[in-house]
Amino acid sequence: MDLLATGAQMLSQKLGVNVDPATIQEALQGLLSGGDGKLDLAGLLARLTAQGGLGDVVQSWLGDGSNAGISAQTILDVLGQGKVSEFANKVGADTGTAADALSDVLPQIVDKASSGGSLLESAGGIGGLMGAAQSFFK
Questions:
Q1: Backbone angles phi, psi at 77, to 5 degrees
Q2: Of 30, 44, 53, 65, which is most buried with the most CB atoms under 10 A?
Q3: What number of other Cβ atoms are within 10 A of residue 28's Cβ?
């Protein structure tokens, strides 16, 4: 099962909605994609590090230990109220419920994506992730 499908399955359970998994997967991809429409977890992590000041939290998601939590409000702040609302509308949930579910599921998605270090390597290591994070302040 690919990462988006896994995330969609986890979100479906968290949201408690009866929506086609493909719809949730499409909404999740729209929420987490870069400008090219492809899943951009490295970009998400850079935004969390830069805008949310959550470098330690991001580090826990990338490591092999337990994942630090993130609040639904931080999800709204970093991803944007509009984008989370759009996601919520697509999956048939209210914005608060969607943000809450995302705060539970995103750490798990990143953790699965970073198993073995592949996500961190694709971002250019910690230095690359921090460099991307700094670009948000220029």
A1: -65, -45
A2: 44
A3: 25
Alpha helix positions (H), 52-94: 55-62, 72-79, 81-91
In Å, what is the CA distance from 55 to each residue of 41, 47, 113, 134?
A: 14, 10, 17, 12
Residue 124 to residue 9: CA distance in whole angstroms: 29
- H helical segments located in 17-124: 21-32, 41-51, 55-62, 72-79, 81-91, 95-113, 118-122
Tens-level pLDDT at each residue, the chain (138 residues): 487 888 888 888 888 877 888 899 899 989 988 777 777 888 888 888 887 678 888 888 888 788 899 999 999 999 999 999 999 999 999 999 999 999 999 998 888 888 754 454 444 444 544 444 444 434
